[in-house]
Design a protein that fits this description.
By secondary structure, the chain is α+β, with helices and mostly antiparallel strands.
Length: 153
């Protein structure tokens, strides 16, 4: 079980790694089915090669959602309420068979205008097993404070 961090437990500069995951063909096909994105780059090796890639490329958003899931399985987790926004960059292609993991760093924190929740600015990186950054960006995450009980407005 991960250590649950409330707003008061978190400080800018806090950083940790996520566990890893190997991306599979099944991830790509299931994401295509769920999203409706059957663009040939993601589904056809020959088409991907015609664009200069060695094989088909996983959806960029698949990398983002896998990282978000890995974040929630890390040794530390935030007492999250909701994601408020994402600012995301796709740096390098992600392929089936690659092992990925993430790094999270708390860049900033502030209380909401009501003062009963906190907003974290998280800097995140999605890396492959060679340590290359495939994707990176920021996420604004609404988190609970210790002063507010779950379910309270």
């Amino acid at each position: 079980m991960s250590e649950l961090l409330f707003y008061e437990d978190i400080h800018p500069g806090l950083s940790f790694e996520t566990p890893g995951l190997t991306v599979t063909d099944a991830h790509i096909v299931q994401f295509a089915g769920l999203s409706g994105d059957f663009f040939a780059l993601h589904m056809d090796d020959d088409f991907a090669r015609s664009l200069g890639f060695p094989r088909r490329v996983a959806h960029g958003l698949l990398g983002l959602i896998l990282l978000d899931g890995l974040k929630n399985r890390a040794e530390k987790s935030f007492a999250s309420v909701a994601s408020l926004s994402w600012n995301w960059n796709f740096r390098k292609p992600l392929f089936a068979g690659e092992r990925i993991s993430g790094r999270l760093t708390v860049a900033e924190k502030r209380l909401t205008s009501k003062g009963n929740r906190g907003i974290l600015t998280l800097a995140l990186e999605l890396r492959n097993a060679q340590g290359e950054i495939l994707q990176d960006g920021t996420n604004l995450l609404l988190v609970r404070t210790r002063a507010v009980e779950p379910g309270a407005a």
